[in-house]
Amino acid sequence: MADFDLVVTGNLVTAHRIVNDGFVAVSNGKIAFVGRGAPPAAREQIDARGQWVMPGAIDGQVNSGGQANQEGLGRASRAAAAGGVTTLVDMPYDDPEPVWHGELLRAKAKQVERECHVDVALCGTISEAHGTSTIAGLIEAGACAFKLSTFEAAPGRFPRIEEDLLHDAFALIAPSGLACGVHNQMQELTRKNITRFTDSKETGWDAYGRAHTPLIEQLATAIVYELGALTGARAHIAHSSLARGFELCEMYKAAGNKASIETCVQYLMLNGESDLQRLGAKLKYYPPVRAQAEVELLWTHVAAGRCNFVSSDHLAWALERKSNPNIFRNASGGPGLETLLPAFWTGCEQRGLSPSMVVKMLCEGPARHFMLRDRKGSFDLGSDADIVIAEPGRFVFDASRSFSAAQWSGFDGREMRIRVGATFVRGQLVFDGSKIVNKPGHGRFQRPRVPGGDRPRPRPQAPARAPAPTAAPVPTAAPAPSAAPAPSAAPASSAAPAPRADP
Q1: Burial class (CB in 10 A: 0-12, 13-18, 19+), 130
Q2: Taking a C-beta distance cutoff of 8 angstroms, is the pair 263, 298 a contact?
């Protein structure tokens, strides 16, 4: 009789150690035993010796609905599986209507469980018209965080929230313990600079970085952290391209504030010099990719443990939205679900950082941030059996074979030091290294663990029948304590405003 449903053997990578010739055993979709040596009996054995075996990645910034009729959650989840991402956190800025009240979030959660191949957590936002009135309903519906912006990227869909309204939103969100993530960009300075460059007919690839100065990002970052200090909220910078952002975060944390910060893999692996010149608008992001010297400074903060997590900011724009010779008239963002893990692993390896850093930044970090750590981001007993097998070597990424709606990428043609050989979500094989093998609907909507709301289930113990005596158990870390209780909430009843066009 088999002890477990599934056992995967290989070189295990956790946030704190590497276990050569280890194994992960799965029962009922959960991690049931982790050890070293001869693996126990199981109904299915996966021999990945010589390969890396790690918890599934969590991409903490995905925009699956940023362009109407382009990708959507279901197809994004296929790209996620191919990239070793077992949980994606989808942003609220859907086209044509963002997720600004509880009923919209509930409808999106149902879509997850109809269409998705991997698990999904969802962020909420607020609208200009209804302000903070729908925050409680979004918390009750299961938002894992809030995403707000100091810049209007698209009228209606991605609005600017002015500082006084941001303050009030932070104050209402704070008791829930959920993070207030902010797109950090000063609107007036941005538009002033773009107008100046456009009037002088400086609209080529090199104008973008010069128009989006460090001042634009740094001032917005400081405002976000000061709002957190005033309200007690978890103030989070959604994508820092500058080392100064990490310095500001450390200053506010040292003063006792709940400050956090992330960067994106493109800011660590691509630059605003040779890469932007070569790729043009395909590499247009906000904030912009910076000079290589700034890239290396960002890595020092990652290596020092000052980054909460690394994400992709995936948005699979149709190529016609990235093809205008005027750099300012192109959409910002790009696909990244399939390159987040291999690209970040590559950067860590090139800089002599342990594979454990990958798990810290792509698994454990986002799980803690979005309050999913009781079930995601680790090989702790009782956690969801989200497992990735990564084959070491040298592999060239070919965007034309992408599972995403975008068959282009800023990483097209780049050499990676791993490729994803298999992805398991809750113990079920989703991606076998070449194709998606599970059916839509396997993905589950993931609510955050909020005291007074969802409660974590007790952790199961190892089965009574002991594994082979040659197998030594490997200790795992306990999840972090959860945050403050959520306020009581009632679903919003107000109607959504008519959507406005994305320019």
Answers
A1: middle
A2: yes
Query: How many Cα atoms occupy the beta-carbon half-sphere of 186 within 13 Å?
Result: 17
Q: What is the pTM of this model?
A: 0.90
Q: Which amino acid is at 181?
A: G
Apex CA 265: angle with CA 259 and CA 267, to 5°?
Answer: 80
Distance CA 159, CA 99 (A): 12
For every residue of 274-318, which 3-state class applies, written as one string? HHHHHHHHHHCCCCCCCCHHHHHHHHHHHHCCCCCEEECCECCCC
Q: What is the dihedral of CA 449, 261, 213, 284, to 10 degrees?
A: -60
- CA–CA distance, 153 with 296 (Å, rounded to integer): 28
Instruction: Give the DSSP H/E element, type plus range, for residue 422.
Output: strand 415-425
Nearest one of 140, 6, 122 to 64, comparing CA atoms: 122
Q: Which residues, 6+ apart, have CB-to-CB distance to 244 below 8 Å? A: 214, 218, 221
Burial 317-330 (b: 16+ CB within 10 A, else e): beeebbeeeebbeb
> For residue 133, which phi and psi values (nearest 5 degrees)?
-65, -20
Nearest to 313 by CA among 143, 123, 110, 119: 123
Cβ distance 95 to 66 under 8 Å? yes
Cis before 287? omega within 30: yes
CB atoms inside a 10 Å sphere around CB 247: 14
Encode pLDDT of 294-339 as tens digits: 999 999 999 999 999 999 999 999 999 999 999 999 999 999 999 9
Using alpha carbons, select from 476, 477, 473, 478 the residue that is nearest to residue 456: 478
Q: CA 198, CA 212: separation in Å to the nearest integer?
A: 13
Closest by CA position to 92, among listed 165, 177, 39, 153: 153
Separation of alpha carbons 184 and 311, rounded Å: 16
Q: What are phi and psi of 5, to 5 degrees?
A: -75, -40
pLDDT at 1: 60
